[in-house]
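Re: weekly structure request thread

Next one in the queue (240 aa):
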Amino acid sequence: MVATWECPATRPEHIDNLVSGVDRYNPSNITILEDYLYQQTRNQEYDCLANLAILKLYQFNPDLYNPDVVINILIKSLTASPLPDFNLCIAILEDRPPNATLDEPDPLPVLLPILQTLHDLLYRCRFPKFWEVYRSDDLESLRDNYTVEYVGFDDAVRNVAIRAVKATFTRIGVDRLGSYLALNGPDVVAFVEKLGWTLDASGTVISIPPNPDNQIEATVVQESIKLPQLGKIIAHASKP
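Done, posted below.
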């Protein structure tokens, strides 16, 4: 997973050369990186390091700051949960000097608390609440102006839920999983069949294949202490 995070298979060679060297600090490359971000949103790709490079350039060059780009980066990082990508972005933004050259009001101060709430819900695996908040009337502007541009956003969030379920359950009810995925009945069944998960005879319980995270195994820890080492411990303990 670390290797994929550092260098996604979908990253073009020219982007890899850019983010791997000192050129990532060259402000003349900001347009290349921003175009790559929009490629990610259209093609269901994700490259955290390239997106962090954009935020770093905004930090060092406040005149380049584009709030819409920042919001898109934060939305992309939401669906990387439980990885710390969203918090990494926030850490860079907190050190960014203010920009007084914007022609229009900056939407980020309004949307940032909303995105932080959504991230918190995903991180704590409160998936039904996430969907309730995300689909509320209060977040209509977020959906209409931003996530509508993110191809496959809903499925990317569902994949966050699936990762949590795979690590936690061996069996789960269809209705319960449906509440996590914001899907009902046949849609839930169709979704899990793509994952290779199976339903029981009643059609109400889904079986999740064994994996290293959802299997309980006893762990035996053995320590080898040599006699001279034990003598030192006893001698040290006997000192007044």
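The chain has a mean pLDDT of 89. Strands lie at 171-173, 198-199, 205-207.
Next request, please.
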